[in-house]
């Protein structure tokens, strides 16, 4: 974050440190992508 802060213009007050939009809840975003991928199958861990 220090590197980013040194490079952004003055007046920028906040920098997000995570994904936004559809990727905000990244694990659920990944699950959707896995479920849509042909050739992958779900298995029980128990």
Tally of DSSP helical segments: 2
Number of E-type strands: 0
Strand content: under 5%
Mean pLDDT: 80
Query: For the terminal residues, how far apart are their CA atoms?
Result: 40 Å
Explain how this protein is built.
The structure is a single chain. The protein has 2 helices and no strands. By secondary structure, it is mainly alpha-helical. It is elongated, with a radius of gyration of 18 Å. The termini are far apart.
Compile the SSE list and pairings:
Blueprint: H1 2-7, H2 26-35
Labels describing this entry:
0% strand, 2 helices, 46 residues, mainly alpha, single chain
Briefly, what is this?
The chain is an all-alpha fold and 46 residues long. It is built from two helices and no strands.
